[in-house]
Amino acid sequence: MCPEPVEGHRTDQPSAEDAALARIVRREAGLIVAQLQRRLGNFDIAEEAVQEAIVIALRTWRRDGIPVNPGGWLSLAARRRAIDLLRKRSREVPLADEWDADPTTSAMAAQRSGDERLPMLFGCCHPALSVEARLALTLRAVVGMTTQQIASAFLVPEATMAQRLVRAKRKITTAGIPFTIPAAADLAPRLDDVLTVIYLSYNAGYLEPSASGRELSDDAIWLAELVTRAMPDQAEAWGLLALLTFLSSRTQSRFDDQGRLVLLEDQDRDRWDEVAISRADGYLSTAAALGQPGRFQLQAAIAGCHANAKSWDETDWLQILTLYDLLLRFDSSPVIRLNHAIALNHLRGPEAALAEVDQVAARLSGYHLLHATRAQLLTALGDHAAARAANERALALTHNPAEQYLLRSRLMNGGE
């Protein structure tokens, strides 16, 4: 688990029409890619055809309004684009031209969601692909985001993201990556890959203040719900859904009226979404009842400790530290150890915490939250010069505007 993601300020609210379009694309695009891929046996053409259909839909629907059967409209447009692409790339036109012209209805799509989107998701998250490629492919093929939207969310040029997608799709072809749900014996590690991609996409959106960042976080929660509905016997799927729901429950309290970041200890807990917290508690209870402990469940339990504390002073740091001790058995990465040190600070003080932070400093030298954490601990120990240097290093390493504003404020107030 990464330290609590810094949430960006969201001021650019999408129009009601665009929000409706986003929901429709999210619901239908992955299904249509899966259907085309199954029919053609060509993921590249299927995915590109759907992306082009989405671009056409966004332009047309904004002008003419949303059609009565948006799923069918997208399906038919994607089929036509696939035929055009096949004409250019192969001699499979007779097969394509014989396709039934009747569009797939939303009802039919809903019936097939369990056995079509999940194989696509597992294929896009295959371990043969880099983590960056998995993220990009999942967001394009399963969620339906455009290359421009994904590039914006990850703060890279559109051309860079386009090249990343091309390389990823080429890898799928050359490596013969299947779009299938793994057999039971192989499911656990492959499911962990899928859940990790969903969590990383949530964090990427969480850290980005633009509308695309907000949409990315929303889409990650939607993907977590999709996996959980399809695999209700998988405890870690419930654990991830609980974690993301706990984190999203604090959305309204993260910034003040001027758009400045409000740290967890200073947030107005009356603005937290109690319904979401209750829902997340239920998800976590469901996970626990399955008797399959894992890292996402433990991370969710930690988030639940924060969400259910009535005040910062009432935070159960002993419980949180105990949960981190358990989490280290599943994930001993330096980032988890950094989080463990942050909890340790609240029980045993900054000296013990700093000693633990310094043990992972070399492995996290390029991670801005390591230096920001060191700065806070050094400040507590009275070493203000070292704290200032650590904050300056953290500032140099982050590109997130909210984090930059906070770090600059600390430096302006003496570097602490």
Structure overview:
The longest helix is centred in the first third of the chain and has 25 residues, at 16-40. Helices cover 71% and strands 0% of the residues. Among the domains are: 232-313, no CATH class; 332-416, Alpha Horseshoe (Serine Threonine Protein Phosphatase 5, Tetratricopeptide repeat). With 416 residues, it is mostly helical. The model is unreliable at 1-13 and 91-115 (pLDDT under 50). The protein is globular. The two termini are 26 Å apart. Helix 1 (16-40) crosses helix 5, helix 11 runs antiparallel to helix 12 and helix 17 (368-380) packs antiparallel against helix 18 (384-397). The chain contains 19 helices and no strands. It has helices spanning 16-40, 43-64, 70-89, 93-97, 106-124, 131-143, 147-153, 158-175, 184-206, 211-230, 235-248, 274-289, 295-308, 317-330, 334-348, 350-360, 368-380, 384-397, 401-412.
